[in-house]
Amino acid sequence: MPKNILFVMCDQLRHDYLGCTGHPVLKTPNIDMLAENGVRFSNAYVPAPLCGPCRMSVYTGRYPRSHGSYWNGSPLRIGEMNFGDHLNPLKMRTALCGKTHMTPDLDGMARLGIDPCSPAGQRISECGFELWDRLDGVYPAKGTRRPSHYFEYLNEKGYKGDNPWHDWANSAEGADGELKTGWFIENNDLPARIAEEDSETPYTTSRSIEFIEKNAGDSWCLHLSYIKPHWPYIVPEPYASMYGPEDVPEPNRNERERENSGPLLGAQYEKRSAKMFAREKLRDKAIPAYMGLIKQIDDQLGRVFEALKDTGQWEDTLIVFTSDHGDYFGDHWLGDKEFFHEEAVKVPLILFDPTAAADATRGSVCYELVEGIDLLPTFVDFAGGEPNYDVLEGHSLMPFLHDPKAQPVRDYAISEVDFSETYACTHLGLPVDKCRMVMVFDGRFKAVFSNANLPPVLFDLENDPKELRDIGREASSIAALAKLRAHLDEWSMAHHTSGTTPISRRIDYEDSECEIGVLIGFYDEQDVKDTPKAVHPLS
Amino acid sequence: MPKNILFVMCDQLRHDYLGCTGHPVLKTPNIDMLAENGVRFSNAYVPAPLCGPCRMSVYTGRYPRSHGSYWNGSPLRIGEMNFGDHLNPLKMRTALCGKTHMTPDLDGMARLGIDPCSPAGQRISECGFELWDRLDGVYPAKGTRRPSHYFEYLNEKGYKGDNPWHDWANSAEGADGELKTGWFIENNDLPARIAEEDSETPYTTSRSIEFIEKNAGDSWCLHLSYIKPHWPYIVPEPYASMYGPEDVPEPNRNERERENSGPLLGAQYEKRSAKMFAREKLRDKAIPAYMGLIKQIDDQLGRVFEALKDTGQWEDTLIVFTSDHGDYFGDHWLGDKEFFHEEAVKVPLILFDPTAAADATRGSVCYELVEGIDLLPTFVDFAGGEPNYDVLEGHSLMPFLHDPKAQPVRDYAISEVDFSETYACTHLGLPVDKCRMVMVFDGRFKAVFSNANLPPVLFDLENDPKELRDIGREASSIAALAKLRAHLDEWSMAHHTSGTTPISRRIDYEDSECEIGVLIGFYDEQDVKDTPKAVHPLS
Question: DSSP secondary-structure letter at A169?
Fold first, then answer.
């Protein structure tokens, strides 16, 4: 029997903008159906609240500090085992429809004599994905510079210009026919000037349905990776008119937050998107469009599910729904992402396993701490393989799908940001190697530590679930901080670079040396006889 | 003008077994001559007190935790920039005579489609060294399994057998002509059954002289890497009779050390070599041979220096003399290495720069903390390049050669051991991922921390220069330990995996996004105008 994985990832989807995660207005029946029949993880955290590093972590099963791609556009180091390296040996194809944000390590390839255009070079350049249809948005991925098929599709459909992605799918039209870019929040309450079926989400969906239809009978993992609801926040009709300012909740923020901020959080307020969303009324323009984009994704997923059923693959397909990070939208006086409040670092995660083994957990919610790096080991596990935990730093989530009493896989969740390429670095006057932040969250306390001796940020989510009070610099926090710091130290001291000597191959070195004739630590023949385990090749 | 580097490394040479480092008996005039004309570093520490990880660090300029080769035989991960990657682009050949302990990452090569036998594959397999004559001792390197030329040389010279390295160069003969292996300490007071000129050190020396003679006029870095005075401690005449038990100092140990030991140090006592050297009189057999081996190296270096002069290359050649780690020889009740007392972790380091720029420092001693990972950046610097500090974690030592007032390059030295493949792991009952030890030494206090919550080891070298009293579990040590722990945390939190985005290429990401048409954080056109640095490609 073939085994399939439909790995759906949205870009910038907050954890709380789905029906099944409690949004008061937005209804997402198709995604909710997955939750009703699978397991919803209510404490899923991303390895980095930022597209590129998060995705590289998800696709390698390793923390940003381990794979080294710490920022958008930072190439994934040559030699890192990628998504295909783990799944292809299990006879599972790994295909992509949509976004990865992957940037290849061209310097590394040159050093190793690998032609980026060779079959091996292309596979490495795409993180082990076979490109069914890569769509990273406005610009092709740096390095590869392959144009997206979507641009051609739009041109063929009559949407003219060099950048139809921007000029049609992500722009509106003014009263006099002038182009109004969707990048500007000012224009987010206008509909995109494109037929709904030609916009990004339906396009990527149709391409993924093509894949599903053509590959029935094979084992595959399809990464259906929607570029939305990421900026530009603009959506065509009917979604553009579906939600309005009346559907926009009050921002989660108060004045005390800004007055009380230390340098680490304070520097975040200097970001352009933060300053912008601190203004009144912007949310009323952006959030309704954002909700429309999510609703559109939900509708399109209905098409995908139908295709799985129509092609007889529904019963063989693990369906995974998640996001790469959230969006602040002015909550906590911040915009976009890149910090560690729940709005940014927590994501929706639903796994629907159609097999009978998962019947005991259907419709349940799992409250354990899980991370984006858990997905790849889960996929290997589902595909029937043994996750390579010498390289993979997460844990398979399959036990949670099969056993309502499965044990926690970790005591604390980790997420990282290196802000050396942001204005926060300049603002704080830090050298580029002192811009690392690590979040440690134990389910109650969440700390953000810096490697620049800046005071930590700390939230107590039990007493302050909305994270409105940073208690990181309060004397009463010393014990909580010490505990989280000990977790951080444990995590920091772990191997993040191993992978060449599997744990299973580790042996007693003294004995193995003996086997090849290196006899260290013996006075004489009698010593060898007195050493029970030692082999003596010279006798 | 060509620039050359003669990079001499001994294997297992203690810091205090040279004339210039104060040995009371052993005279090493050739090595001392380097110190008299160059700079001797009296506080040089290895990245790991163990051959393989130390060497991989020296050859990559990175800590073991960064390159991932944590133990002997642990392959150097594919993609790590190696010795040649840093020096070859400067038109400097990198050649090897002797030992590297390099194990190639064959799995990684297979994954990337690199044939280990192709020119690129061979270069990667040898860490960027061109093999003039690799000699790793009794067995060819795992993986490559290339036989050493030395075996052929011995056979041609009439030393018969499959393993003439062992049977002649590293064995003695009994009264009845029976073979007595040099691996056994019992036999270390006997001479090796080989003509002195055919033993390892003269062989490797002659091969290096060939290189020096044939390549005069080119720029080269020759790694003259003696496999001695590493075990087997056996040397031919006249060196075998040169030193005797009367030249062996009392061991640096006392009973209190064993009584007072915590688990981390206590587990080391369980090692075979430790138990063996705890016995009486073994030192009297091994150490005189060890001294003979060192004396032989010193004599052979005289030949090399003559060759440099004879070929007119003396004035163009930076000469570096060091070791990969020391040897306990029963000091502190330990044998071999793998822990962090000065006997194991401190090495001799002398740099002789023949150019006029170094005249101000000739014959001086530098007391600053330096590390084995400083060598590669020093070589790049000497060769006229800009050390790539995105990858290299050490610091060029050239300032110390040119300026008597050069500033320290670090506040603390780091060394690491992962003992998951040793009996200490079994003895302590630890999982293999909890066997990491890191030494932090600030010039006075030296701590060894574990990632298994074992109490740290601490020595105060100001009040206890012989490191006979572990004060790691004493209440009065809290402040010193906290300071060293803060250093460890800073070091642990640093990037150890980056290298794909050079610091010089790091830019303000918000602006760079704008340049490619990603306009995040703008409400309208006015916002763009109000943002001084932003580029606006759509206008």
Answer: I
Query: Which tokens belong to B324?
Result: 């990969």
Query: What pLDDT, in 10s, does the model give residues A61-88?
Result: 999 999 989 888 889 999 999 999 999 9
Of residues B73, B108, B523, nearest to A185 (C-beta): B523
* Residue in A with minimal Cα distance to B140: A516
Q: Would you say the C-alpha torsion B461, B467, B469, B470 has a positive or negative sign?
A: positive
C-alpha to C-alpha distance for B521 and B151, rounded to whole angstroms? 68
Q: How far is CA B27 from CA A387, A394, B247, B292, in A?
A: 57, 56, 12, 11
- Helix, strand, coil percent content, chain B, rounded in steps of 5: 40, 15, 45
Residue of B227, B520, B530 to mutate when probing chain A, most A C-beta within 10 A = B520
DSSP state of B187: G
Angle at A282 between CA A279 and CA A284, to 5 degrees: 135
Q: Give B320-367 pLDDT, tens digit per residue.
A: 999 999 999 999 999 999 999 999 999 999 999 999 999 999 999 999
Answer whether A191's CB lies under 8 Å from A173's CB.
no
The average pLDDT across A141-156 equals 72
CA distance B174 to chain A (A): 14
Q: Which of A37, A90, A87 is nearest to A315 (CA)?
A: A37
Q: A501 and B75: CB-CB below 8 Å?
A: yes
pLDDT per position as a tens digit, A13-53: 999 999 999 999 999 999 999 999 999 999 999 999 999 99
For residues B185 and B329, give the distance between their C-alpha atoms in angstroms, rounded to a whole number.
11
ipTM, two decimals: 0.89
Query: Which contiguous run of DSSP H or E holds residue A512?
Result: helix A509-515
* Whole-number Å distance between alpha carbons of B355 and B313: 12
Look at the pTM and tell me if it is higher than 0.80. Answer: yes
What is the C-alpha to C-alpha distance for residues B136 and A150, in angstroms, rounded to an integer? 56
Judge: B138–A508 Cβ closer than 8 Å, yes or no: no
Residue B361 contacts residue B404 (beta carbons within 8 Å): yes
pLDDT value at residue A508? 63
Question: Residue B538: its pLDDT value, please?
Answer: 31
A498/B contact by beta carbon, under 8 A: yes
Average pLDDT over residues B178-195: 95
Q: Position of tokens 């309502």?
A: A404
* DSSP state string for A408-472: PS-S-EEEEEE-TTSHHHHHHT--GGG-EEEEEE-SSEEEEEESSSPPPEEEETTT-TT-----T
Q: Tell me how many residue pairs between chain A and chain B have CB atoms under 8 A apart.
A: 261
Check CB contact of B278 with chain A, cutoff 8 Å. no
DSSP state of A100: -
CB B198 within 8 A of CB B237: no
Q: Distances in Å between the alpha carbon of B111 and those of A91, A128, B73, B80, B126?
A: 15, 11, 20, 15, 18
Residue contact A538–B85, C-beta within 8 A: no
Extract the tokens encoding B388.
């790539």
- Beta carbons of A503 and B114 less than 8 Å apart: no
Q: Which two tokens mark A69?
A: 């791609």
Interface of B with A in 10-69 (CB under 8 A): 65-69
Alpha-carbon span A229 to A207, nearest angstrom? 18
Q: What DSSP line would sit under B19-71, residue for residue?
A: TTTT-SS---HHHHHHHHHSEEEEEEE-SSSSHHHHHHHHHHTS-HHHH---S
Task: Give the DSSP H or E segment for B285.
Answer: helix B282-310
Task: Compute chain B's Rg from CA coordinates.
Answer: 25
Nearest to B493 among A436, A508, A525 (CB): A436
Which residues, 6+ apart, have CB-to-CB distance to B140 below 8 Å?
B146, B147, B148
CB A293 within 8 A of CB A235: yes
Locate tokens 């098409």: which residue? A303
